[in-house]
């Protein structure tokens, strides 16, 4: 089978469903929400056609979906779920239970804007606000990355040094519903990559007597939380290793950050998710005009690859940060504040210019990104080394 | 039967284990609640009339603290070390065999 690359046309959601099918998890508990619905629909097709062995639990809400996932995961099952926007917000309480009880659940997020006003289109705020929930958090640019990150996520989450739930995001409609070219893997390749069953330290079972979810107060709570921080630090290296292993397997280069034309660059455009594709296209256009510019794509959001980003941006003049997420009254965009914290006190750092854009699926065109790039350079020329703007709206 | 928390649990509470020693995710051995004699919280105690008890075990299953013990004759008895005096057993007893009496300390 290896050596034969099969190429299929799939939407982002379908790519996730097909990748999960190859993983064949023990339990999927999910509630449909646009634009994630196709993942759950396709997967329930697979279940009812007998193509997978999964127990599919159709629940009454996302709060219940994640609760069912936690219960299933504690029995030692391999568990998957998917959601978006309001659904992720409803799961929020149980996200902390999942990570606190060290359940390596994999969650696909079809990134969508929050209500109100109600909107079903792409925006990454839903996933970014889960940054403190002790979940490993990845973003994908395309249907291909949706497919690849689905498979990767199981391996990262279940690594004995990590044992943390993992979520990955693809932008609503822009990726979830766009039909794209996807190179698939064979069942055998995925079985070789991911062990048949996961390593379980404590299993909720009639044969193994343990207390799960016990009350832990002032005397031990902080120790248990500290374990999560150490696991998150381990996840940084594990994610790097797993991505390297996956690159070798698939022949597709997969890294926690992706550097595009940054070697001789003086300026960088930093983006994540689908916007990163546009950033690279703009780099090509600007390079044609003689600008020394490159793109930096952030694939791993938590644990935040501070050092990798600092090294990638070292010596540059400006960094234009395109952030498709909303935050209000903040010192910068969500990703900009993380980058700024990571760069603080270092030498040879670029000026940081964050741009809140694309909310509720608003399109940010390539000429607009070029304008934004010019704006960053102008800010830098007058010595403004940290700015945040909203772009692409009518005032 | 002595109700004691497991040795492993008693050891780490005595030695004040840290993040590197404790099992991950707050998962602990079972029966750790034996270390906490919650019966002294109670404002009521269950007085069980064994002659009225019909051995249905409703109280046994409904007790949220597993404080009902079935004795050798399969009659309900109450473990006062763990009974919090909630009265659920009394409400669920079909033969009115359990009376809640106020405890005065």
Q: Main attributes?
A:
heterodimer; A: 395 residues; alpha/beta; Rossmann fold; seven-stranded mixed beta sheet; six-stranded mixed beta sheet; 19% strand; globular; B: 105 residues; alpha+beta; Alpha-Beta Plaits; two-stranded antiparallel ribbon; two-stranded antiparallel sheet; 17% strand; elongated
Helices and strands in order, then pairings?
The complex is a heterodimer of chains A (395) and B (105).
Chain A (H helix, E strand, L loop, with lengths): L5 E5 L1 H12 L3 E4 L6 H12 L6 E4 L3 H13 L4 E5 L1 H16 L5 E6 L13 H4 L7 E4 L3 H16 L7 E6 L8 E5 L2 H7 L16 E2 L9 H30 L6 E4 L6 E5 L3 H14 L4 E6 L1 E3 L3 H8 L4 E6 L10 H10 L7 E6 L9 H16 L4 E5 L5
Parallel strand pairs in A: 2-3, 2-4, 4-5, 5-7, 6-7, 11-12, 11-14, 14-15, 15-16
Antiparallel strand pairs in A: 1-8, 6-13, 10-12
Helix pairs in contact in A: 1-2, 1-6, 3-4, 6-8, 9-12, 10-11
Chain B lengths: L6 H9 L12 E2 L14 E5 L9 H5 L5 E3 L5 E3 L9 H5 L5 E5 L3
Antiparallel strand pairs in B: 2-5, 3-4
Please characterize this protein's 3D structure.
The complex is a heterodimer of chains A (395) and B (105). Chain A is an alpha/beta fold. Helix content of chain A is 40%, strand content 19%. The longest helix of chain A is centred in the middle third of the chain and has 30 residues, at 221-250. Chain B has a domain at 38-105: Alpha-Beta Plaits, CATH 3.30.70. Chain B contains three helices and five strands. In chain B, the strands form two sheets. Chain B has a two-stranded antiparallel sheet. In chain B, a hairpin with a 5-residue loop joins β3 and β4. Chain B is elongated. The two termini of chain B are 26 Å apart. The chains are: A alpha/beta (395), B alpha+beta (105). At the A-B interface, β9 and α8 of A face β1 of B. β9 of chain A pairs antiparallel with β1 of chain B.
